[in-house]
Hints:
The protein has eleven helices and 13 strands. The chain has helices at about 25-35, 75-80, 100-105, 105-125, 160-180, 200-210, 230-240, 260-270, 295-305, 310-320, 320-325; strands at about 15-20, 40-45, 65-70, 90, 130-135, 185-190, 190, 215-220, 225, 230, 250-255, 260, 280. Strand 1 (about 15-20), helix 1 and strand 2 form a beta-alpha-beta unit.
Amino acid sequence: MGANPSKLVIGGAGMKQILITGGAGNVGSALARKLVQNPEYQVVIMDNLTTGSKFKLPSTEFKNWRFIQADANVRRDVSAVLLSSRFDAVFHFAAVVGVARTQEHPIDVLRDIEGFQHILEFSKNASVQKVFFSSSSEVYGEPVELPQHEYSTPLNSRVPYAVVKNVGECFFKSYQQTYGLPYTIFRFFNTYGPDQSTDFVVARFLSAALRNEPITLYGDGSQTRTFTYVDDTVDTCIKIFENGLLDNDVINVGNDRIVQIKELAELVIDVTKSKSPLVFLPPLKDGDMSRRQPDNQKMRSILNRPLIELEEGLVRMKNNPHFLKQIGL
């Protein structure tokens, strides 16, 4: 479904116009719901609903947002949206996500490169003041050092999803160098929250535990990850946007507490008082890195508050009506 430019004239004088692509996904929708609480913002949410859901959009009690079903990888959709309103900022969060999904549909992942070009070209043409890009911790690949630092850790993954994110970072840097379009790149580390789909590990484990069903792990569960509650992720992004921070720079957005996947499963069982057994499956063929941990000094400095502990995030998530409805409970 293409965008209709005749319906995109929004906002009044002095109001900031913000576009979020992928705004019906996990992080994009959380960002949208937080931004619309500021009456001086007008937010356009763009999503093709392949993996996103209208269920995740802001409440209709807020009148300063609009949803457009459109595809960031389709040139005419992007032009219809970006050339019909004078956006101050664009958050490009649309992407094919998830290790399993991206391995099963590598061509769909590669199509996201077209989206980078469309978003940047029309942002430049429409005089957007700044663009923000959702990259990923996957770009680091198997770590050569921990914690993984934005400037000293090489980007060495060969997984298609990670390669495409790396290409995206190059596009944003190149448009700034050539046309002066400011950017900030967010390298997200495993953001979880009540609107996360069960394609991802925290939501999958919680969904199984709340039903007392088996919790499945790949390999022996010794892989380590860090898990970032969505409020920490979104608050960091908004602070960078509102305070004009990190122009033409990159930031790791993630908690630095290392957790084994087996430990995560045990925490989920404890938090939910579940009787779920652990079931170990063969390791994934590719893309399941053994370790990951961000150097998050910049994030902590910007956020200027303690990060939400994993146990607290799990409790918030399991008690959230959005999450319970999403998993059919």
